[in-house]
Structures are given as structure tokens and as C-alpha cells.
Please model this.
Amino acid sequence: MTSLLRTPLLRSTTLGAAFGGTALLKAELLQKTGSFKPRGILAKLASLSTEEKQKGVITVSAGNAAGAVAYGCALERIDCLVVMWQGTSDLKAAAARGYGATVDREASDPGQAFARLEELRDATGRTFVHPFDDPIVIEGHSSLGREILEDAPETEVIVAQAGGGGLVSGLAVGAPGARVVAVEPEGSQALHEGLAAGHPVEVQPESIADALNAPVAGAHTLRVCVERGVESVLITEDDVRAGFRFLYERAKLAAEPGAAAGTGALLAGKVPDVEGRTVVVVVSGGNVAPEIAAAILKEE
Amino acid sequence: MTSLLRTPLLRSTTLGAAFGGTALLKAELLQKTGSFKPRGILAKLASLSTEEKQKGVITVSAGNAAGAVAYGCALERIDCLVVMWQGTSDLKAAAARGYGATVDREASDPGQAFARLEELRDATGRTFVHPFDDPIVIEGHSSLGREILEDAPETEVIVAQAGGGGLVSGLAVGAPGARVVAVEPEGSQALHEGLAAGHPVEVQPESIADALNAPVAGAHTLRVCVERGVESVLITEDDVRAGFRFLYERAKLAAEPGAAAGTGALLAGKVPDVEGRTVVVVVSGGNVAPEIAAAILKEE
Model:
């Protein structure tokens, strides 16, 4: 059994027609744990010393990193504590517990969860694994960019959604020849504000794209995004929903809202200069509660 | 541009655990037109003479064959008339129209649609392409079985759903070393009754798995199924729904109900002698209206 999968790259004629180019979907929702996160997280866990592993691990997450850290810890038999917050996905918390992790959801919002993390880390002496802002995590995510270029060397643009910026940083490192476009909902724009300010800026994220609700972008991820010229695009909640429905109806993929922002941006014509280009869109996760999926699918 | 895709074979640890074996999902819902149907239909269209093509084509279908025939006719610039019936999927009728076909839905049920087909064929002189009961169509579908064995030579059992029997016949021809299990809903068991009687038997199919609502199995498909020892399993409507939800939530695939019957049968423990086996389940299509998908996802 392999702990990571090579996910398929699927052509979408209909999406390509929407922007007058060629569209390929990197179906990373089929990755282990249902999101891209284990690529970076497993690399990070492998880098820990025996002593660091013996202390147990602690992380903070909107949910997909929680599942990936819990999964990696189960593979390596490391004790795992995950800090989430009220309002995060029950399904994602249950997935982390399913891998044997303890989940703490005392915090009332993302900002408080980071404070809660520090408190619990100090109290327990656990080894902190950052959900995105770590050079080893970013390097681990870069395998996604390399796979894309191996399977489609003609790729000119890679579009992906951003929370704290780990995914787009990894893509920029792994696919240095391609433009990388980071898409965020207007209500959850930690990376966009960080890029504008030149340093991490705290935000109060609120979007149906729960996987993207990071309260702040990372210092490492911002540096990589600036150095590599990652572009930033903002979209509406309706664009996210339209991307979600498109992926379901046309691409037959059960993506989560947070994995549909890039698709939504392309459909809305909000990614500049893609006409005639070969564009890969990363469909980065599929962890959505069926009742949320049902609500979005019914809306049309 | 290729007119057919090689679809991925995805491992599902969770489904394997459900029956104590190894499960692989053949993600054929990612095929062109969103179902396996073009494999056989394109082979059939390619076999027609220039004169037969010039007369235009007519077919009858619950919807997926309609889309495949319309798609193939668009590629070959053949005029296409599709007979469906009242109550068939609006989405599938729209897809056929989207490829340029004319869709006739005067008939009130599947049985009447076959009568309507004969009437329109005689009136127009069009060339009839059967949606499943044709040796060339079956041979075309056999590529699915060959691909499965190429990608996973260790395959012992292939589970797929059946309407008129075209898919399971093709699998049996293409993968002669594997057991092939045909799954049907109790309310739509044309193949099961045909196998029991030794000849095609007319039924009044009624299932949420609309793609499986064939009014009768084929003479050719029955013969292949008997010769090759295709097994028959019946499941409930709830099993279909459970398969649908599993594919959405765990496999991240937006399958249609008619493509989830095999998965539902395995989850319900209704496929005999699979413990310890390597089992491939064909997820044969993804053409489901979002409001139907929403209703099934909400039910849990």
C-alpha cells in the first residue's frame, strides 16, 4: 500500500470552451484523505526526529490538514492532537478522529484556534506541525506541480485555490515554468491581503469554501509567492458555488467548495490572459458533508 | 482529440474493507459523454456503410446510449434521431440535443418507446443502432474489460450493473479470466428474468437507477451472459442509494444512481464469495440531475 497516490489529470472540453483554451483538471480530491494535504504533511512528519515524534504532534487546521496529519501520524504511530474550532466541518473532525487523533474544538474562531494551539503546545510539550507555513510542507506539496508538468509538459497556467498559501507555493516551486494563479473568495482573502501588505495580515475569514478559511497567510508561503510571482484573483461566493456545480455536473467530481474556487474563477472569466492557453486547474479536495453538497446542488 | 478516453482505476480502501477484500473502482463515469456507452456505440457507427450513414441513424434509449449515439453521430456528421420516453432524464435528453440529435419523447414507457422506434424507423428509412443488443456494440464494450485486466491483472471479480446487459456482456468478452457479476435493482430486472427464462422477457422497469430501466434484455447479451457464466444479483432501491452516497462521500465520484448499483451490492454484502478477492467495480456513468443527486445526498 502506498501512502500517497499519483492522481489523474483529466481533460475538460467544456471548461476549456468556457475560456477559449485547453483545460485539464488535476483530480487531487482522489488523493489519500481526500485532499492534497498529505503531500506536504507526510514529508514534514518524515523529517521529524525520533524524539520529536515521541513527544506526539499537535497541529491546527480548518480540517483537511487535520486529516492529513492524523493519517500520517497513524502510519508512523505518532500520538496526534488536532486543534480545530467551532463551525469547522464535523465531517473533517470525524475523519481525523477516525485516524486515531484527538480533536480539540474549544476555540470559537480561526484566530482563537491559533492561540489555543500555543496554549496546548506549551502545556503538553508536543511537536508543532504547521498546516501550511513550513518550507518542508511547501517542498512536499511541490510534487503536485512536478506531476502536472510530467503529465502535461505543455501546461502554461496552473490555477488553484488558496487558504494560507501552502498549495500555491508548492505548485510554484514544483512547476517553475508555469504561471501560478491563487484564487480566494472575497470573504476569505488572507493570501491576497498578505501579498498586498508584503507581510502576513490577520483576517476574519468567512466563506462556504471552509478549507480556505485560514486566518492569516504564512511568512514562508508569502515569500515563495512573491519570489515566484504567484498571481492573486478574488471571486464571489456565487463563483465558488458555480465551480462546485460545474465540477459535479460536467466533470463528475465530488469536489468540496474549497476545491472549486479555481474552476469558479475560470468560469467567471476572472483569471486574466488564459485564452488560447493550456490551463491546469487543481481540484484540491473532496471532503464535503452530503447535506452541504445537497444544498449547493439544489440551488440552481 | 481522442473520441474515447482510458479511464482511471482507483483503489478504494474503505470499500475493500466492507467485504474483506481489495476493491478497485473503474471510473468510467469520466468517459466521454459521462458513461461507458460510446465504447460500443462508436464501434457500431464505424461499422456502418456510407449508405447506411447517409440514411441517418435512429436509436432508442433511457438516455446514456442516446448521448453516445448523438456524440458519435456528431463526430461522423450523421443525422441522428433518438427515441426516449416520458419520464426519462431531462438532462440526458438535453445532452443528446446538445450533440445535435433530434429527441422524440412521445412514448409513455420503455415498452411503447420500442414500438415507437419501429414506427419511426419504418417511416423514415433510418439505420437502426441498437442501444445494447448488437454483437459489435458488445465487442466495443469489451475494451473496458481489457483495460481493467491490463491495469490490474490480479482482478478476480468484476461487478457491474445491468440494464439490457450490454455492459456485463462486454466485460465478460473482454475479461474472460474474471468472474463477472451483473447487479440489478429488484424493480428493474430484465436481465435476471431473461437469464432465468432462457430468453428475453418483457418487464415494466421502475427504479431510481434510470440508466438500468431496460424493458427487456437482449438476445445477444443473454447468449453471451449464459455462455460466459455471468452471475446475477438483485438489490433494493435503498442499496442503490447507499452505493450512490458511498461513491460521493468516500470515493469522491459524482456517479449516477444507475452506476452505483454494483457498489451498493458490495456494501450490502449481496455479492457472494468476494472475501479476500480483488474486485473491480465499474462506476459506469455520471449523468444525474443535480436535484436528484441532492435528494439522495440529503436522505442520510
User: Anything to note?
Assistant: Chain B has a mean pLDDT of 96. Chain B is about 45% helix and 15% strand.
